Target: FtsX-like permease family protein
Amino acid sequence: MLRATLKSLLARKLRLTLSTLAVVLSVMFISGSLVLTDTLGRTFDNLFANIYTYTDVQVSAKSQLQQQGGGNDASTPFPAATVDRVAKLDGVAKATGQVFLNGATPIGRNKKVVLNQTGQQFGANWTGEDDLVKLAEGGAPKADNEIVINRGLANKAGFKLGDSMDVITRDQERGTYKIVGIMQYAGGRDSMAGESAIFFTTEKAQEAMLGAEGVYNVIDVKAAAGVSDEKLRDTVKAELGDAFVVQTGKELSDEASKGIKNLLNYINYFLLGFGAVALLVGVFLILNTFSIIVAQRTQELALLRAMGAARGQVLRSVLLEAVIIGLVGSALGFLVGLGLGAAGARAFVGLADGAEVASLGFPISAVIASFAIGIGVTIVAALMPAVKASRVAPIAAMRESATPDRPLTKLTISGIVVTALAAGALSWGLAGAGGATLSLVFGGVLGVLIGVALLTPVISKPLVAALGMLFSWSIPGKLGRRNSARNPRRTAITAGAVMIGIAIVTAISTIFTSLSTAFADTLNKDLAADVIVLGQQTSEIPPVVTNAELDRITALPQAKTVAAITADAVEINGQQQFVFAYLDPAAGVSVLKLTTDQGRIDRLGPGEFMVDKKTAEDRKLKLGDTISVKFAKGPQKTLTLVGITGETAIGDGIVIDYADAKEGFAFPQPWQVFMAVKDGSSVAAAKDAVNDVLKDNPQVQAYTKAEYVKTNQQTFNVILVIVQVLLLIALAISVLGVINTLLLSVIERTRELGMLRAVGLRRRQTWLMVTTESVVITVFGTVLGLAVGVGLGAAIVTALKDVVGFGAVTLPWALMTVYFIASIVIGAVAGFIPSLRAVRLNVLGAIAYE
Model:
């Protein structure tokens, strides 16, 4: 039996290739995701190890506002005397006070911000060359208008020694500086990871980056000979106490790498989710492949039974074939995934100039997952056909066919039960089921897809007949329609693979289209501004409008009402969250169309705040209640609730007085400005006037209300494009399923096709018949996928209406039309290879085919 199985497998090389390719496509996404995250993880381990190679111990002060995850804030200044205290400690060879933090924004020759992919725009004081920093050209800055920049920034922005460059520092002041030096890092690196670095004189760095003279925010401590980094750390920590964070270079490297790895984990989960979809589609493909293979081998297996083979031997024969295909497909899938992971890692790291990809990893998890999934899925998919093969009676060897259609009753009942249970789980999850919410939602969606797939054979009969009518204007078209309907189970499995990919894309499209429409409707309804000023955040430092610019905007002749808003993270009763402040509460209430529910909302004083009705209910706040707020700059205040606004989709949350914000926010300048123009004034002219005011501020610009809405909607569009691109893998597998099914079907119907050719069916007509069958199956799967996707998307939108802020369900008609038209094209393309094989059949050889 073993020899017979291997000979049967090798004798049908096309069948072997198609079956193996199904496994490869199912496995490669999973292995590629695991290889990608492993390679990126080790890459960033190496990167941060290199960054902190020359750091023995680093000291920074804790902020009174505890930051999530770390507890320290690198922007917190401390007096220069602290450096002297550290320098006198035993075991310290040298202690250097440094100004080094994000927030020095370089302006290019085009008067725009010089962007980089890392979001890091460092400003520092020049302390001279050391093991890490080397001057490549020029010298040190000696005057307040002189700077040294890293080679990476110079190359990116096109600056050279002696040029002038504008820089916006953390104090939000824009200055013009002369480039007197260009530096590189050890090893001739232009940057560590694509960041920009600008070095000022110590006095200028303290003033512009920390806001005061004679202060630093970092101390670089070098250990004396024979003193370990850990011992030095403990000595410094004991001297400075709990107000400071003292870490070795290795600890800094591990901490930075850990933050990146947490992000990579989320990326991995995201990619594995799409891998799971591809895997599910692959199961349908493999199941269909083995079902057709067993049907084609009916006489062969029956002859084996007649020659004395037991049922168990036949069962093991088919399963052995599945194991071999799964093993080969898993190996190839892992190798393809390895290539995809390597390409993805290079593309990701390529965004950060200066970073280098670590050697490609072979994570054991990727190897195990590839072979476990590939072999496991193939065996599971082949199990039902194998059981069916073992039941073939020896007498079947004497018949032409031993695969009559079976009733669909059991399959239909199973589909109804699975769909009902899955819909219940989905509804329960969307209604909120504690910690199990996410599992119930994902499980419900998966169950609905499987349930509908089980019902597909029943659905296919009327729907395929209806769709086939479109192609029944010719004899080949009628034959193609009947061929697609002659085996409901096979058609259903093939169309089911197409259905899953289309359903998921349509559901996500429906969700994001509804969310985008609801967001636009909310802004149009609840925002009374005609011109909005905002910027693109290129680092952790927000783009702001200066107070002088705000005064000029307010004084414009087109301006009727101008509201400016700022925000910052604070700690309220021990929990971190964002709070807002209006520079003029009355203007904010007017522009955001806020209504009074209780108290007063048109004015605030120091120590006062207001909230919207929903926030008040969630926090169980009433007029006169107080909250304890700890600000970024340090002060802790008790604020009293003096007003509650009506329910609102924008402008919600806690709003404090601007005097308190100015004292406590890290960046109290306005983040956004909203302007309502006077009646009769041109909105376009008002926008141009505002942009003229902001011409020297490259961080922000003015938009009309329509442009503002469109800009905010782009986020949803970008996410949707990413999802569609990733799901193309699943759709590609489903298209392969159509090709696979038709090719095997053509092989199965070789004799039938020969008879049709013999009675006068021409080559062109044969091509049209097979292509029609392909198009009908693909369109059927697409139509079913669109219906299921719309249903799932509409259910999620309706269930989350009050939670997320959805409006009415909005269907992505344009995308759905594209999917439908594309299904016709894809069906025609998918039918090309099978139809090519069909038209090339030798008529006499086909009639004699067994």
Summary: Residues 66-73, 400-404 have pLDDT under 50 and may be disordered. The CA atoms of residues 18 and 496 lie 18 Å apart.
